[in-house]
Amino acid sequence: MELKPLKIGDLTARIPIIQGGMGVGVSLSRLAGNVAACGGVGIISTAQIGYREEGFESNPIESNLRAIANEIKKARQIAKDGIVGVNIMVATKRYAEYVKAAVKSGVDLIISGAGLPTMLPELVKDSKTKIAPIVSTIKSASVILKMWERKSGRLPDLVVIEGPRAGGHLGFSLDQLENFTPEVYEEEIKGIIGVVKGYAKKYETHIPVVVAGGIYTRADIDHALKLGADGVQMGTRFVTTFECDASDEYKQTYLNASKEDIAIVKSPVGMPGRAIINDFMEHPKPGIGINGKCLKCLERCNPATIPYCITRALINAAKGNTEDALLFCGDNAYRADKLEHVKDIMDELTK
Ligand SMILES: Cc1cc2nc3c(=O)[nH]c(=O)nc-3n(C[C@H](O)[C@H](O)[C@H](O)COP(=O)(O)O)c2cc1C
């Protein structure tokens, strides 16, 4: 199938590939900037984005807000006139401040999931920043579109459908993960596209939809387009790049992984996620972070009851201590056997 540019409001990405936001420290300015420079859309994850900033331990939120501005600026320098966005999880403590910081830095696009971004239209009002919810089911798509229409008369500029094969936290219950086989989930994708098309028709416009989760090759992209998508969002494929912002040791865990090493895990905040299983996952060390200071990352986390601190386990991964780490990944993470350049991946996918 022919790849058509992806139009997000008045922005156009030459290549309809969005590199998904990956936290902590996996997609920062270097990865996002390079994907954008190649004609795709580069997304910086704001999840504990300030972990390398001075003063992070004593004031994580201030460090994160400062880093949002820095990373967007650095990504733009690499991206030139490419599209740079951020991924802000709804579950983030003081979410509104993160959104405002990104808007103030003139970010092109905010993609928001891990909860329903009900407040997002209000928070970006009077700015040029485009907004996109991440949805996983027909139900969540219907709820968020209806709510945005009713509360603020706003349509999404883009909708991201994230399926059960994705990496990081997943928007499904364990039962749903079992029942949504790839074939069954395709019907859900078509249903979500139908819901979005209904709103687009009502307002005589087009709302682009991208599909995420398990997209790795050009054949996967073509398949998503055949289902009616305008493009794709990819995470795992971009982790094993030279430009990915995570440590080499983290990338190496992907290169070493076999299919059997990848499993659904329960994150400390109760949500299911997908990760490479290491000793730490089998025997989490409660000492990781719990005896230390809370870094105020997620709304729903109660430091008194969690088995380990998710922020510290993800920062360990990003920094290269992969033994005491949560190694988030998509279900394709076993496929890479070498590091690649972003440009070579983009060339391969657009050939
Ligand atoms: C290491 C890793 C971290 C991720 N972190 C986030 C995140 O912080 N917020 C989010 O909304 N999605 C996150 N994701 C999901 C990606 O943005 C993307 O949608 C998904 O991985 C697509 O599936 P794929 O990895 O099979 O291509 C993460 C994915 C990975 C692999």
UniProtKB/TrEMBL annotation:
Alphabetical list of InterPro entries matching this protein: Aldolase_TIM, NMO
Keyword Flavoprotein: yes
SUPFAM superfamilies: Inosine monophosphate dehydrogenase (IMPDH) (SSF51412)
Keywords in alphabetical order: Flavoprotein, FMN, Monooxygenase, Oxidoreductase
Keyword Oxidoreductase among UniProt keywords: yes
Superkingdom in the source lineage: Bacteria
Function: Nitronate monooxygenase that uses molecular oxygen to catalyze the oxidative denitrification of alkyl nitronates. Acts on propionate 3-nitronate (P3N), the presumed physiological substrate. Probably functions in the detoxification of P3N, a metabolic poison produced by plants and fungi as a defense mechanism.
Alphabetized GO MF terms: nitronate monooxygenase activity
Protein's UniProt name: Probable nitronate monooxygenase
The organism of origin for this protein: Robinsoniella peoriensis
